[in-house]
Structures are given as C-alpha cells and as structure tokens.
Amino acid sequence: MKVLSVRQPWAHALLHLGKDVENRSWSTAYRGPVALHASRRVDPAGVRWAHQVGLDLRALPRGVILGAMTLHEVTREYVSPWAQPGAWHWVMRDRVPLLNPIPWSGVLKLVDIPPEVTALILADLARPR
Prior knowledge:
The chain is of the alpha+beta class. The chain is 22% helix and 40% strand. The mean pLDDT is 96.
C-alpha cells in the first residue's frame, strides 16, 4: 500500500468533510489504495480556513495514519470547490477512517509502506464500523 502525507486540517477534511481532491504540484501514474497520513506540520493557509469553519486544530491528530482511500484519478481539470487552479488534482474516493490511528513518520512523496504497517491498516479496516 502507498501512503500520502497531508498537513492538517486538509487531512481531516479529506477523511471527514467531503474534500474529494488533494492538490499537488506533481502528478503520479499510480492509481489505487492510499493510506492517509496526517503530517506533524499544520498548513498555514489551513489555519485560517479551520478557524472559519470552527475546527480546533489542536484537537486534530498529527503524525499518524488516519485512514485509507482510493486515488481514483489525477488531472488538472477536475471540477470541485476543493480543486485549486493550476494544481494537479488527486481525486480521492472510498475514504475510510481508521478506528485506531497508527503512528508514522511522514515523507514528502507517495511511497510504499512496510508490509507490517499495511497489515495493521487492513486489520483495522476489517473491524466492524
């Protein structure tokens, strides 16, 4: 399984608030399952947005794998309120939060995670919701 690090509050928005696009400056040929990692860092632009929508950034987990989703498409032309002009739009579907977030040190790229971490994610996802 691949993992993608996303700064808060955007990781929370992807998993819980209907954010269907992750905006990136780069593309990827990969399509398929992706673990969502909440970076330890907060996005400065996200602080203002979180305040506007009433999110307490201090309550959002960081430095953990929060859930899984499917990277369905990568395009520059996706239509969504979350899609930023000029960015690569990583279209995410099938988002599922983990019941027990997994501590993880993030990386800047879309990378493979070790099989033992993938096993933990899949075991969590198999638990009744």
